Amino acid sequence: MNFHFVSLFPEFFDSPLNAGLMGKAVQSGIVAFDHVNPRDFTVDKHRTVDDRPYGGGPGMVMMLEPLGKALDSIERPGRILMMSPRGRRFDQSMARELVREQDVTILCGRYEGIDERLLDLYPVELVSMGDYVLNGGEAAAVCMVESVARLLPEFMGHEDSGEEESHSAGLLEYPHYTRPDEYQGHKVPKVLSCGDHGRIAQWRREEALKQTLHRRPDMLAGSELIQEDIDCLRGLDRTMLGRNLYLALVHYPVLNKFGEKVAVSLTNLDIHDISRVSRSYNVGGFYAVTPIEDQKALAENLLSHWLTGAGSKANPDRAEALSVVSVVDDIQSAILDIQSRTGQSPLLAATSAKLDRRKNAPAPLTYDWVRDRLERQPVLLIFGTGHGLADEVLDRAEGIIRPIRYLDEYNHLSVRSAVTITVDRLLADEF
Ligand SMILES: C[S@@+](CC[C@H](N)C(=O)[O-])C[C@H]1O[C@@H](n2cnc3c(N)ncnc32)[C@H](O)[C@@H]1O
User: Fold this and answer.
1) Residue 108 near ligand 1, beta carbon < 6 Å
2) Is any ligand 1 atom within 6 A of the Cβ of residue 130?
C-alpha cells in the first residue's frame, strides 16, 4: 500500500514510520511512503507557501498554487485525504475502509489551514483525528497511517490480531495478562490458566462487555449484543446517573395563552406517565408541584389508591412507579426535600419549548452539560404545564435547557413526551 504525504515538514515522519513493525513493513515492501513538499513548487526566492487571510484575523493560510502543484506531481494519488479538525472523525471502520486502497494521499495542513478553494479544485476528503487542535496534520497523519497499515495482511505476523481488538466488534477489548502469575499480591485471573478455551472465550467476552460499560458506555448503542451479552451487562454494576436526577412538574406558577400567571389542574395522565418514566430510568424522585389544596387532595387520593388501596394489589408495577411521586407546594419544598435526602443542593435546570429571546439571554444549557453535572450533584429538572413556566421559575434556575427540536418551528409536545425525551437524552439506556 502506498501512502503519499504532502507536508511542509517531511522530516517529521522519519522516526515514527521507521520504528518497530512499521519499519519492518517498509523493508519488506508491505507499505511504501513518499513525500511531496509544497515548498518545492513555489516560484519566489523566499519559497513562500502561506499568506495572510482575507477578512483579517490571526495566523496565515496555506496558498493554493504550491498545494495544487504538489498534488498534481503525484502520479497515482488515489484517495486524497486532508487532515483537519473539521473532517469526518477517523475511526476503526474508516481504517478498514482505507486498507482496501492501493494508494492514499495525505495532505497535512499547517498554520490556520488551507485556502478553502482547494476543496473545489480537488476531491479532497477532510479527516479529523479528534475534537482537538494540533499544530499540523503530520501527527494526525501518523496515527491514521499506523492504524490502517496494521490491518494489512502480514503486517502483524498473525492474521487474527486485529479481529479481537478494541473497536473491532463495537466493544473495547478484554484485559491481557502475562507472567509472573502473581506480582505484589496481584494475581492473574484463574480462568486464564484453566485450559478450557470455551470458558476463556466466555470470560473474555464478559470482560469486554464490562470494560465497555464502564469506560465507554456510549459505544454500546452501536454494538451488536446478543441475549447472553445483555444478560451479562444487566448483572454488572454501573453508574446510575438517574439517581441524581429529580423531576418537578409545576402546576403553579405557569402561564396561560395570554401570558398571564395562572394555576393549572393536575392530571391523572401526567402523574402516571411521568412516574413510569421516573421508575424506568431510576430517577431519584418526581415532584408534582401545586399549592392548591383540592389539587393536592386529588393527588393524594390517586396515590393512596395505587400505593395502598385496591390498585396496589391489582397492579403492583404501577404502585412501584407511583411510589417515586411526592406532592409539594412549591419548588422550594422540592429543593429542601432533595437536600435532606442527599445532603446536597440540587442544580435547577428549567425546560421550555420556546427559545429565550430576552436581550442578553445566556446560551441555553445543553444535555451534555447537564449530564456532566449529574455526575457531581443532584439536578432538578423543572417542567411546566399550561403555556410554560412563569418567569419567576425560569429566573430561579441555573439555565433553560435547549428546546427539543430547536431547529424546527413546530415543537408542541405534551409535557409527558417532553419529560420522556429529555430524560432519555440525558440517561439513554446505559446510565
Ligand atoms: C493549527 S491547525 C489549524 C486549525 C484550524 N484553524 C481550525 O480551527 O480548524 C493546523 C493544521 O493541523 C491539522 N490538525 C489540527 N488538529 C487536527 C485534528 N484534530 N485532526 C486532524 N488534523 C488536525 C490540520 O491539518 C490543520 O490544518
Assistant:
1) yes
2) yes
